[in-house]
User: What shape does this take?
Amino acid sequence: MDSLTVFVSLCLLLSAIGIRRSNASIHIYHNDPFREVGNAYLLSGGSEGIVAPFSPHHTSYIRFENITFWRSKDTADQHSDMEHSSGLVQVIIFEAADRNNIGGSAYGGQRAICCTPDLAKMEGCKQGEVIKRPSATDINWPVVLNVQFSGNSLYKKMAYKEVRITKTGMYNLFFVACDPNLKGLVMSGKTMWKNPDGYLPGRMAPLMRFYVFMSLAYVFLSIIWFSQYVRFWKDILQLQHCITAVIALGLFEMILWYFEYVNFNDTGMRPVVVTTWVVTIGAVRKTVSRLLILSVSMGYGVVRPTLGGLTSKVLLLGITYFLASELLDITEYVGTISDISGRARLFLVLPDAFLDAFLILWIFTSLSRTLEQLQVKRSSVKLDIYRKFSNALAVTVIASVAWIGYEVYFKATDPFNERWQSAWIVTAFWDILAFALLCVICYLWAPSQSSQRYAYSEEVGEDSDDEEAHSLTRGKGEGDINLVKQEKNVRTNTDFEEDDEEEEEDKRE
Assistant: This one.
């Protein structure tokens, strides 16, 4: 990393903040099949947080474009050309808070989406259609749009439609077919979900602003660190080169995340190449950061000149962690904005969590040994630094465990994402925590004239022994001078005595 990189990154970031982009979030469907759920055939069209427009010049909506339903030829052949309505597909949009207004159950039985003869008597619904009850806050919601097949046609194209959103909430879109003859129905087309400020989904919009501040924080840290790095270039340790690499990767990652969100906000899509590049940089940064902390804990460059036989094990762990982190991030972020299923995410999170737990155990075990070695060597300066580092690491682990507990509680108590407006904090916390720990490491191992005092030395008790050596040298020096003075005094006194004797002899004579 050099000053030109920091300058260019800062210019790109600040110029991007002022760019105004076009708006919406695009869900694309390509021959997506309907699945049987209860007494209905269902296809989920998406779920997003949408913010109500804050001025007349902004709008929020869900738009349907080129939505086409295809049924099987056998089903189409059951109808004649003259039939006006030969199959009904309903499009339903509702807020998560109104989810209980969809469907019903007869006599306390299984909940049904479509109206049955018994439910028609009890609920007053129309048989063969979706059961819906008006929202308590707006009688026009949930919104239901009807699409009718005609004659024996194989497909039906939905008319262009735009549903305006006037209330902030988590909105769900479903395509429902209650006709049992429409088994095997598939759909193609796209829907565009617009927030007032862009295509970015409501739960992701705060992250775009968050990455602006994180990028500026990394720029600020880079300027401070690099100024010291250049100033004391001759005294730089190998460990400080590694810290420089982590800072550069962190800065690069934050800026790339910001531009990835800007692109998402512009196009409504997440290009595979762009997002893969971003998550790969992030996986590299997380891997290098963890290996740096492990190496510091082992005393690399301070207690030992190299990692020796542990080098291959550390590298193997790093490669394994990178692959696990890369696979998890690619599955979670690359592609469209659709969420992956809970089981798939759990399957991918487990290896990552296991490796993190193993790393923490190895780090604290190594740190304990390093502290013992420094105590034996009586290296007071290094011991003080490592104690501060171990305290910071302990606080980080405690905060991580506490936040994981909060994250589990947050997701367990919000299965329908009704607290989507604060969900970005869960993701942002980990970036803030990593940055805070990096700042602590930069403070403890900042480049200076005395950097070499932290370097590995084969001498035992190099710090305390040196001080003792200096004091002993000073003591010996003073002792020598005193001895000389004493000898001089002795000689002087002897001379005086000899002179007195000579004077007495002269007087006698």
